[in-house]
């Protein structure tokens, strides 16, 4: 299906959802959630800004999503209320990763992943599966088994195949897109060193996509990585990888640009051109993990700059007909990976710890398609 037709179909599909007898919004059903109706701005006198990101997604004809912290999903009513009012697309931040779903060999824990998929079903949301093969957050039994030599290459390949077929098969028909292979090229443009590359060779990537397609013919299958917003050796390496996979007729559908930025650095103004290099190869694309961290403390000036970063990333997706999804990596500073990973930095998301919208949220509501 041509992307434009697809986008129209997506638009019509979401429009149909909008016209369907809507479930009572959790927000309207209970105490008022944070006020998120953006004031009429002078820039659009009389032109109604969308009231929330879900309405914006319908206007733009794309999915607007967020990573989901499953503990907050289960325990925080306000988190769940805002999540389901604002987003048409959700990604399990950690619950679908191998260390989460198979903590011991042959012992599965699907609770968190099932909760994300069920929340999506109940709230008219689509799901991004994250992630099938990655060098990180692997269960100890696997990494130690390989390091000790207990698991040889042949067994490792069988283990990877079984993992992909089991997890993708469990959610067959319920996942719009899978991050099949995550962060497989390093920032120098070389294949990233991992147990997969070392023991299986680069062919593990094509294998992963083929196994995923066999397990769910409907899901869109993506590569996904960070630091792809600038034109670097990493971009050239990914373009070559994509062309190789396409030449081998590997079922690769899309490229995910994670979009982890820091406002203390320049904004990657070339991002639209970089994205187009992949859509020119016939791929669909998505911004899969957008956030814009800052060196603390928070100031009005930093919040204003952060708003420009989120606005411009969303504009990059909205302006490319093959961009299907814009997902933030957590929608509230209450639950963000950044402080644990970047000492002295934080406030990376569009809402504060109290779920109040920040300037970044309001700036995104003002984005138009072209
Ligand atoms: O589950 C354990 C828990 O049992 C233990 O008590 C706790 C002690 O600290 O750790 C918990 O594991 C943490 C895990 O998230 C689940 O919450 C790890 O310490 C922590 O390092 C891990 O961080 C995640 C990180 O990936 C790991 O690389 C972040 O939450 C997550 O946001 C981040 O997401 C990645 C994407 O998957 C891929 N792209 C980059 C992005 C940011 O790193």
UniProtKB/TrEMBL annotation:
Domain GH10: 47-367
Enzyme class: hydrolase
Keyword annotations of the record: Carbohydrate metabolism, Glycosidase, Hydrolase, Polysaccharide degradation, Signal, Xylan degradation
Compositionally biased tracts (Low complexity): 27-43
Pfam families: Glyco_hydro_10 (PF00331)
Catalytic activity, as annotated: Endohydrolysis of (1->4)-beta-D-xylosidic linkages in xylans
Signal peptide stretch: 1-29
InterPro entries listed in its UniProt record: GH, GH10, GH10_dom
Protein name: Beta-xylanase
UniProt organism field: Thermocatellispora tengchongensis
Taxonomic placement: Bacteria, Bacillati, Actinomycetota, Actinomycetes, Streptosporangiales
